[in-house]
Specification:
This protein has 401 residues and is α+β, with helices and mostly antiparallel strands. Helices cover 36% and strands 22% of the residues. It has three domains: 151 residues, Transposase Inhibitor Protein From Tn5, Chain A, domain 1 (Alpha-Beta Complex); 110 residues, Transposase Inhibitor Protein From Tn5, Chain A, domain 1 (Alpha-Beta Complex), CATH 3.90.350.10; 92 residues, Transferase Inhibitor Protein From Tn5, Chain A, domain2, CATH 1.10.740.10. Strands 1, 2, 3, 4, 5, 6, 7, 8, 9 and 10 form a ten-stranded mixed beta sheet that branches. Helix 6 packs across helix 10, helix 8 crosses helix 9 and helix 9 crosses helix 10.
């Protein structure tokens, strides 16, 4: 299991060496089960006696920031919660930082930096509010790591008697406006939001209730605030702490765009769960479940790499052909399975490959979205693998005749 995982991380680290700039988008999720083996696992929610139990998983996905392509997983760790730890949430301020689950953010950076080497200087960690931990921010600055992190805590600032959020509202410099598409989610309609971007450089004070003293942290901040929100909808508001420059509109727009790409880790988790089906596994031992966590984690990356090109502009399709994800045998078998035209001299686009695989899985585009679901894409991928195996068997038999 460790060898498979380390080999996968090593391949991604090798690809990263040629990238001009990298984004390490990361988040924590859970892999939950309800069959017999679940009793031997840990809780994944707030209830000690919950029926579903499993693993917590922290993943770091590496992206080429220039092309906005997914390179792959550079780090992933899973663990089970100790039942004895339930009920200690309210005493978290008295617990050592190293004993908390939030310590996983720092540990992920340690392991990622060891794999990337010199490329770490070109890597920007992009995280959501869960990572807004003073010790983690302090560690990143001490190591000279770059980051874009969405603030959750309204910390004190040195240059004002007010807290961070109030200081931004009153003192941040207005830079520009831009429009962002907000996707439809449960209970929320798809819409466009017009945001005003403002920036400020601040010195954050360490938490006053911490026994361990810390030095103030100087960071740049981008405030993205929705203008004239739709009545009845929650106004969009991002407060982004970063090491990146934010003095101009161009800089601020770049920071916000990088933060928008953080959503790629959410899509990865969907591919892993809804597509590959990591939570559909029914092995009876935790050891075998852990092996499938590792194997399916890398399979989910392949699905993500395929589908992220469905929404790409048609003129950009030639920038990346399907042989960056599929082997020569795979894309040729796929072509003969889905096309009536002669085999092309060069590999077709990733967009074509994604839609062709989805059609093998039953995709008919009945909703007229043009985007196959993760489950459909996974079924198509499984059918393609069976056809490739059949082709390899037939080729081997032909050699022996």
């Amino acid at each position: 299991m460790g060898a498979i995982r380390d080999a996968g991380f090593g391949c991604v680290a090798q690809q990263a060496q040629s990238a001009e700039r990298l984004l390490a988008v990361e988040d924590t999720t859970s892999a939950s089960y309800a069959h017999a083996a679940a009793a031997r696992l840990g809780g994944t929610g707030s209830q000690r006696e919950a029926r579903h139990r499993g693993y917590l998983v922290h993943s770091v996905l590496l992206l080429d920031a220039t092309r906005e392509h997914t390179l792959g997983l550079i780090e992933q760790r899973h663990w089970c919660r100790d039942d004895a730890e339930y009920g200690k949430k309210h005493a978290r301020k008295q617990r050592a930082y190293e004993d908390k689950e939030s310590y996983q953010w720092e540990q992920a950076s340690v392991r990622m930096a060891a794999r990337l080497g010199e490329a770490m200087a070109r890597t920007i960690s992009v995280c959501d509010r869960e990572s807004d931990v003073y010790e983690y921010l302090s560690y990143k600055q001490q190591q000279g790591h770059r980051f874009i992190l969405r603030a959750q805590s309204d910390r004190g600032v040195s240059q004002a008697e007010q807290t961070l959020f109030a200081t931004l509202t009153q003192e941040a410099q207005a830079l520009c406006c831009y429009t962002v598409d907000i996707a439809q989610r449960a209970g929320r309609r798809a819409r466009q939001a017009k945001l005003l971007l403002r920036s400020l450089r601040v010195e954050l004070q360490p938490p006053a209730n911490r026994s361990r003293k810390g030095a103030p942290l100087t960071v740049n901040v981008v405030l993205a605030q929705e203008i004239d929100p739709v009545p009845g909808e929650d106004a969009l508001r991002w407060i982004l702490l970063t090491t990146e420059p934010v003095s101009s509109a161009e800089h601020a727009l770049q920071v916000v765009r990088y933060y928008e790409l953080r959503w790629r880790i959410e899509e990865y988790h969907k591919a892993w769960k809804s597509g590959v089906g990591v939570e559909r596994q029914r092995f009876q031992s935790p050891e075998n479940l852990e092996r499938m966590l590792v194997i399916t984690a890398f399979l989910a990356v392949r699905l993500l790499q395929l589908r992220e090109h469905v929404d790409a502009p048609v003129e950009s399709e030639s920038a990346r052909s399907c042989d960056t994800v599929l082997t020569q045998e795979q894309w040729r078998v796929l072509w003969h399975s889905s096309e009536r035209h002669p085999l092309p001299d060069t590999p077709p686009s990733l967009r074509w490959a994604c839609l062709a695989i989805a059609k093998l899985g039953g995709f008919a585009n009945t909703k007229r979205t043009g985007r196959p679901g993760w489950d459909t894409l996974w079924h198509g991928w499984a059918r393609l693998q069976k056809r490739v195996e059949g082709y390899q068997i037939a080729k081997q038999m032909a050699k022996q005749m």
